[in-house]
Structure formats: structure tokens, C-alpha cells
Design goal:
The chain has 240 residues and is α/β, with parallel strands linked by helices. The protein has one domain: Copper homeostasis (CutC) domain (TIM Barrel, Alpha-Beta Barrel). 35% of the residues lie in helices and 14% in strands. The chain is built from eight helices and eight strands. It has an eight-stranded parallel beta sheet. Strand 4, helix 4 and strand 5 form a beta-alpha-beta unit. Helix 3 runs parallel beside helix 4. The radius of gyration is 19 Å and the shape is globular. The N and C termini lie far apart (62 Å).
Length: 240
């Protein structure tokens, strides 16, 4: 069984290779579902490990419906990844009605220049997973990362199993909540690959009490955070 580890740092990537993982999905900010890693992190990982590196292309947290400006950033990130020499791209785009944005997903695949393409867990939001599977196979997606439209892959294993049975040329990769006590179950149910982070918490060197750098309202998944023209303009006028 192929093991893909979701690595959020250089240390995580090195640990994954040493532990026997077959490949990594490189990202940042696991707490919000993963975001595109920095160019510096990607280059460092490529210099330090030999197993395949697939890269998450997701410009922000929240939904998977992107503005033209956001999508332009995604295409540029894919271009950068291909120049660096990654082995795979992990991404995806939805329409407001939770259907696959076929046009933009095809653009991402084209920008990926033939490297392995995984449609990520935006799949878990689609209204009709069977129709989505058919559409993604038709446009050349190699793999679908999914929890079976549940919080954890174990809870969604019935849908995952059904999708795996129907898939003709696309790998169904279970992910979310896979641990040592349930990993073998996915192999026993016919899956050829699993995805997990294997992450544990480590103590920080220091933490300044009563001055957290984390602002929870900024993590509201129902809203997109954007620097506002009027707010900036009013402050500029006030201080100039």
C-alpha cells in the first residue's frame, strides 16, 4: 500500500521519508486544512528528501470558490512548482453550487504540465460525488483525496468504498483521521493508498502570555478576509 504523508514543514518531510513514506503532500497551516507552501520551504524540501513531493495549491482557507485574482495566484504557484521540479500538484476548484469548476480545474491540470494531479478534499463538498468522479476522470485527474464527505475517512468509508469500486482510471485516496488503529482497515477494503499527517504536538521554545498572535475571527470559514479599499483610504487620508 502506498503511503502519502501530509507534511507541513521541512522537519515533517524529512521524518516522513525516514519513516518509510512513499511520498509527501507538502503544505502549510494544517489547522485550516492546508495552504500553499512557501517557495523557500518547497526548495528546501526538494534539496533534502528523495521521495516524490506533491504540492498543495490552495491560496487561502475557507471555501473553494476563487476570484479571478486568487485563481491567477494559483496558476502562478503551479508554474513555480513545475519550475522547481515537483512530482505532483494537489488542488481543485468548485462552483458556488458545490459542483466541480471544470473549466478552472482543467486549467490547473494543463498548467501542471503532465505531472500527477490530485483533486483535493474540495471533493468532499460536491453535491453529487458520483457525477464529480466521472467528470474528474474525463478531464484527466489522477487521484481524488477524500474523507467520504465526512469529517473522518473512517466515518465515510462506505462512500469511499463505493467510489473506489466505480473509479475507472482515478485513484481514490482516503484521508482525514487515519491513524495506527484504523489504517489497516483501508487496505483490507481494497484501497491502494492512504493519506495522513502523523502529526504530534511539540512544545514551543517560548510563549508570551496574554499576547497571542492568533486571532480566531480571522479564521471564520464563512467569510473571506480582504484588505478593504475604503478602510485603507480613510486611514491614509487621516494620517497623511
Amino acid at each position: 500500500m502506498l503511503v502519502e504523508v501530509c507534511a507541513n514543514s521541512l522537519e515533517s518531510a524529512i521524518n516522513a521519508e525516514k519513516a518509510g513514506a512513499d511520498r509527501i503532500e507538502l503544505c502549510m497551516e494544517l489547522g485550516v486544512g492546508g495552504l500553499t507552501p512557501s517557495a523557500g520551504l518547497l526548495k528546501a524540501v526538494k534539496e533534502n528528501i528523495k521521495i516524490p513531493v506533491h504540492v498543495l495549491i490552495r491560496p487561502r482557507s475557507g471555501d473553494f470558490v476563487y476570484s479571478d485574482l486568487e485563481f491567477d495566484v494559483m496558476l502562478k504557484d503551479v508554474e513555480n512548482c513545475i519550475e522547481i521540479g515537483v512530482d505532483g500538484i494537489v488542488s481543485g476548484v468548485l462552483m458556488p453550487d458545490f459542483s466541480i469548476d471544470i473549466f478552472r480545474t482543467k486549467q490547473l491540470i494543463a498548467a501542471s504540465k503532465g505531472v500527477y494531479f490530485t483533486f483535493h478534499r474540495a471533493f468532499d463538498w460536491v453535491a453529487d460525488p458520483y457525477e464529480a468522479l466521472c467528470q474528474l476522470e474525463q478531464i484527466g485527474v489522477n487521484c481524488i483525496l477524500s474523507s467520504g464527505q465526512q469529517k473522518k475517512a473512517l466515518e465515510g468509508i462506505d462512500l469511499l468504498y463505493s467510489l473506489n469500486q466505480k473509479a475507472a482510471n482515478c485513484v481514490i485516496m482516503p484521508g482525514s483521521g487515519i491513524k495506527i488503529d484504523n489504517a489497516l482497515l483501508f487496505k483490507e477494503n481494497g484501497f491502494s493508498v492512504i493519506h495522513f499527517s502523523g502529526a504530534t504536538f511539540q512544545a514551543k521554545n517560548a510563549n508570551r502570555e496574554n499576547l497571542s498572535m492568533c486571532f480566531m475571527p480571522f479564521l471564520d470559514e464563512d467569510k473571506t478576509l480582504v484588505s478593504d479599499f475604503k478602510t485603507i483610504h480613510d486611514i491614509v487620508v487621516r494620517v497623511k
